[in-house]
Amino acid sequence: MRLDAVVFGGGVAGLWLLDRLARQGCHAVLLEAGELGSGQTVASQGIIHGGLKYTLQGLLTPAAKSIRGMPGVWRDALLGRGMPNLTRTRVRSECCYLWQTDSLTSRAGMIGARVGLQIKPETLSADDRPDALRQVPGTVARLAEQVICPRSFLADLAGQYQDRLLKIDVANGLRFRLQSPGEITAVELTDLQSGRELVLTPRQVVFTAGAGNAALRKMAKLDDAVMQRRPLQMVLVRGELPALNGHCVDGAKTRVTITCDVDARGRMVWQIGGQLAEDGVAMTPRALTQRAAQELQSVLPGVSFDQTEWSTYKTDRAEGATSQGSRPETAQVLCAGNVTTGWPTKLALAPVLANEIASRITAEASSAPFQSAAWADWPRPAVALLPWEDPHRQWWPQPKSTMEATPQRRAA
Ligand SMILES: Cc1cc2nc3c(=O)[nH]c(=O)nc-3n(C[C@H](O)[C@H](O)[C@H](O)COP(=O)(O)OP(=O)(O)OC[C@H]3O[C@@H](n4cnc5c(N)ncnc54)[C@H](O)[C@@H]3O)c2cc1C
């Protein structure tokens, strides 16, 4: 089957790109090894950053410059005014809050956080604060950064491109025919259940498989040391909690980033990242939740964690390698032969990555409309579950430090 492009990996990067390619008339399919978005996208907090996090030292950094247009691009897509059409993607919140502890470094950060951004924080009066932030001693600001449910985003695009998504078995059902390193002439697939074989002959091959890019590059005889992983251990809390999406900023650091959702049984779930999740990588899950409980008490006075349940999950951010191992400033793209490898670096930057890759791929495979009959009964990938919906996840009761603290008023 002659194609313009075969895309590997159905997280935010691959699905956004597939939409772009389909719209520009390319005959393109996406191959997924596991469940769509497993790895990072479904585990992410879903914040469509506008760069504020990257201006906390008071400078318009390259990272802030590259991301500052993204909230507008996503907003248009979510409203059905732009591409892709994301009208079935659930918006968890129209804004994030930003608040400080009362330390001096924290105050400096909030002042710096305004330089050159399209979305600037708007300081709130005491009456306008959300319930969870009523007793915070420092400034509270509102930031028009939307928060989406990443799973609904994955399901939205999967629904639109069902006929172009194929599930593959990387270990036993995938082979590359190579002309030379990075020059793939054919992608050979075997469906181990039915024994069926499919040979795809793409003009271009794209790896947007997150952490899976390294192994794919190795198969294509390309350098696989061009990727880095930065691990996180995220904290989950569920129970009777107020809604909250936002960042507690201390100097140039984000102490905690909290996003929330309601689980399938109607319980509020908080997903907690930021510095806490970076520092928590080496801790045991119980030690981390203990630490998280202390941290939340300090940054959210007045919020009660009575009767809550806690858990953690580990995941790696997979990105193009940088010399210091720090976060790349923007999306990363590498080209060799007919293979392009991409990492968006942030969910919010998927449009930047897709534009860059799609601009190198033209619709030439066929002038006939795209046909999916050749793989009509091929297995299709499912959408990955949100971390708190995993039926095997262990939850434990509220850590001691929150139970022993002086009783506090529950935010209304
Ligand atoms: C905990 C956490 C929170 C985050 N929060 C935010 C946030 O709030 N806002 C933001 O902008 N960014 C956030 N990010 C970053 C963002 O999630 C990632 O940059 C983005 O999701 C990466 O998308 P991706 O498509 O490149 O990779 P992934 O989402 O990891 O998707 C890769 C896909 O490729 C598949 N795959 C793997 N190997 C193969 C193979 N060999 N063949 C075929 N398919 C394969 C996987 O199964 C998966 O479906 C967060 C990241 C983490 C880890």
CATH classification, class level of the largest domain: Alpha Beta
Give the names of the bound compounds.
flavin-adenine dinucleotide
Which residues sit in consecutive blocks of at least 5 with pLDDT less than 50?
406-412
Cα Rg: 22 Å
* DSSP summary, beta strand count: 19
Physical arrangement of strands within the biggest beta sheet: 5-6-4-13-14-15-12-16-19
Task: Provide a descriptive summary of the structure in words.
The protein has two domains: 2-41 and 153-226 and 324-375, FAD/NAD(P)-binding domain, CATH 3.50.50; 47-147 and 229-319 and 389-404, D-Amino Acid Oxidase, Chain A, domain 2 (2-Layer Sandwich), CATH 3.30.9. 21% of the residues lie in helices and 28% in strands. It contains ten helices and 19 strands. It has helices at residues 12-23, 62-67, 70-78, 104-112, 150-160, 213-219, 275-279, 285-299, 350-358, 400-404; strands spanning 2-8, 28-32, 91-93, 96-100, 122-123, 140-143, 147-148, 165-167, 174-180, 183-190, 197-207, 227-239, 246-250, 253-262, 268-273, 309-320, 332-336, 339-343, 396-397. A nine-stranded mixed β-sheet has the order 5-6-4-13-14-15-12-16-19. Strand 10 (183-190) and strand 11 (197-207) form a beta hairpin. Helix 1 packs parallel to helix 5 (150-160). The longest helix has 15 residues, at 285-299. The N and C termini lie far apart (60 Å). The site of flavin-adenine dinucleotide has 41 residues, from helix 1, strand 2, helix 6, strand 12 and strand 16.
